[in-house]
Amino acid sequence: MDGNNKANSPYALEISDLAVEFRTRKNVVKALNGLNLKILKGHTLGLVGETGAGKTTTGLSILKLVPDPPGVITRGTILLDGESVLEKSQHQMQKIRGKAVSMIFQDPMTSLNPVLTVEQQIAEVIMAHEAVSSPDARKKARDMLELVGIPGERSTEYPHQFSGGMRQRVVIAIALACNPDMLIADEPTTALDVTIQAQILEMMKALKEKYNTAMLMITHDLGIVAEVCDEVSVIYAGRIVEHGTLADVFDHTLHPYTKGLFNSLPNMENRTAKLRPIKGLMPDPSNLPPGCAFADRCDHAMDICRKEQPRELYCNGEHFVACHLYSEASIEQEGSVTHER
Amino acid sequence: MSAEQILEVKNLKKYFSTKRGPLHAVDNVSFTIGRGKTLGIVGESGCGKSTLGRTILRLLQPTGGEVTFEGKNLNALSDNEMRLMRREMQIIFQDPFSSLNPRMTISQTIEEPLKRHKAYATKGERRNRVAELMDTVGLARRLYNTYPHELDGGRRQRIGIARALALDPKFIVCDEPVSALDVSIQAQILNLMKELQEQFKLTYMFITHDLSVVYHFSDDIAVMYLGRMVEKAPADELFANPLHPYTKALLSAIPIPSLHNRSQRIIMKGEIGSPINPQNECRFSGRCMYASAQCLNNEPELVEVEPSHFVSCFLCPSNS
Fold first, then answer.
1. Which of A3, A43, A112, A199 is most buried by a 10 A CB count?
2. What span, in angstroms and rounded, lies between the C-alpha atoms of A135 and A340?
3. Helical H runs in A85-181?
4. What mean pLDDT is predicted for residues A71-79?
5. CA-CA distance, B78 to A239, in Å (whole number)?
6. Contacts of A226 in chain B (CB under 8 A)
């Protein structure tokens, strides 16, 4: 049944109204609260937010890897290339993970198996998804290593023999081994130094273009978004508060939270400019306010913000904002105003 | 040392012995910091920036060299004299999750240095000082009896700052104080540290790997690579006119959160080398695209090529 619309879907990934809760004996933590997200085939979407906003939970939900219990997906749909993920069995998911969708985790120190050579770890993925012999899989594994810039003769070494940057390259080789349609990269360079980060980002960009892979780039760094993404979604307390192309979000910022993120960053053009941080803290996800989750930290909060959750308002094409400051009448002009930083 | 300089470091060395030979964590580093100024120290993991901070405070015994603070040679002080000196020199640690004792309340943590140095005669006076410090760093009084695990990273870092300020120091080594924090919280803490610097006339040595933060925060910036200081200049000068090839590559690698004024990346080949048993060569030569025979046979010295702009590279005219 899913096969029918598969070829028609222009999106590699479509998430609508996704809600995920973590239920513990003490309380219920609402990690995602009606998240909407779309990635066009071959495009890179940056998912930006702070610690606890729900970035990683989003990535894990797509692969149906949210630990259950305590995690429960309470509502919503996730379509991968038009096919619903949530209806799949775990067995079917095993065929999807690593083949249709791969994930790169943040910490290259802990995401590799310390007792297998890197070649074995790459070959393992290939043999799980393709009908190839072990020697062929190993040969392909060595090719993958070369592709990510590791000399083939190092393929029989173990993870501890590699530096952090090299290990992340191995993780990327594993993720790309079966030529996935989509890659989820969860803070892939956060644990690395800037010069190594530059190398890895450059490589990921080149490989993505070569294989036309769609990518979800989960990060807290707006600099990385500017560097590698086509579109960007800003997540706050489990909802997307603003989404658009890079030009929309960077140059025509609408949501007060997005503006706050930009203002918190040191200004490279005027270094002595005082930082304007967002006041307060992220709300407790086990006790979210009924209205807009950002209201308590927002300088423009009104009465309605504390009562009602704002809807998504589109200003041009794909650019939307979820904020009561805007109305359908005002939003169209807003999209054309360049904000000042 | 002039009265303007609060700290002078001369040929400071810290080697650690390893099975494979001495690891040169800090090697022949010399610099001064002006009173009330901030010196930013940048570099990648393993370049020796944290070891430098700790060796200056004598939390690690230096292998060689001199540290002069307010005219006193710290290496010549006895342990007891050094303990007294620590009232003047404090440190803020990177990780607000592991640098606080989980079994002490906030007030106990802040009170600890006051007790140790017998700064106040009575418990009451000490408690007043703790409350005053909590106000100074923006911690609500209701948190007086809470434990670190009840607080978020930003508040925990405020405790670390209050603890460092407790004894009215003149000089604080800030070792990656905002690296573990989200940007919105990071900005709150950076603003707080700036305000405190003005209010209490503090001198900072600000260690970080984040170049945009160091640019915002520092008067002077020093770049370290494998235990050596490769370049030091006023912040604006360093960003406008970097001279060392490593500094150039490092600056070009910063991901800029803007779609305009994007500059060309210099992608450096290879990775940082080993600090164990370094040879008599420029430590950056293995990754440097300009390396020549001279770079492989000699180690360049840090030389002042322009007023207050120091570089250690044979490529710079006055250094060859």
1. A199
2. 59
3. 90-96, 118-129, 134-147, 164-176
4. 94
5. 58
6. 255-259, 262
Structure tokens that stand for A184 in this block: 């989820």
Question: Which residues pair with residue A186 across a beta bridge?
Answer: A218
User: Pairing between strand B171-175 and B203-208?
Assistant: parallel
Is the pLDDT assigned to residue B200 strictly greater than 80? yes
| pLDDT given at position A3 | 43
Tens digit of each residue's pLDDT (9 = 90 or more) over B6-17? 999 999 999 999
Strand partners, A176: none
Whole-angstrom distance, CA of residue A112 vs CA of residue A95:
20
Tell me the torsion sign for CA atoms B251, B252, B258, B261: positive
Task: Note whether B186 and B178 are within 8 A (CB).
Answer: yes
Nearest-CA residue of chain B relative to A196? B271
pLDDT of residue A341: 40
Tell me, yes or no, if B267 comes closer than 8 A to chain A by beta carbon: yes
State the DSSP string of A164-206. Answer: HHHHHHHHHHHHHTT--SEEEEESTTTTS-HHHHHHHHHHHHH
Phi (first) and psi of residue B24, to 5 degrees: -85, 85
Set of chain A residues whose Cβ sits within 8 Å of the Cβ of B223: none
The letter for the amino acid at A64 is K
What does DSSP assign to residue A110?
Answer: T
Q: Please name the helix (run of DSSP H) or strand (run of DSSP E) that holds residue A163, with its range, or none.
A: none
Q: Which residue, among A169, A246, A268, would best test binding to B if mutated, counting the most B CBs under 10 Å from its CB?
A: A268
pLDDT in tens, B159-181: 999 999 999 999 999 999 998 88
C-alpha A281, offset from chain centre: 22
Predicted TM-score (pTM) of the model is: 0.88
> B23 φ, ψ to 5°?
-95, 115
Check: CB of residue B42 under 8 Å from CB of residue B222.
Answer: yes
CA gyration radius, chain B: 21
Q: Which two tokens stand for residue B149?
A: 């695990």
Looking at the complex, report in whole angstroms how far the Cα of residue B213 sits from the nearest Cα belonging to chain A. Answer: 6
- A with B: how many residue pairs have Cβ under 8 Å apart? 114
Number of residues that make up chain B: 320
Q: What's the confidence (pLDDT) of residue A317? A: 81
Q: Which of A220, A251, A264 sits opposite B259 (nearest CB)?
A: A251
Both tokens of B57, joined, read: 């405070």
> Nearest to residue B133, comparing CAs of B85, B198, B182, B192?
B192
Which 3 state secondary structure label does DSSP give A336?
Answer: coil
Examine the pLDDT at B109 and tell me if it is beyond 90: yes
Which of A50, A51, A223 is opposite residue B256, by nearest beta carbon? A223
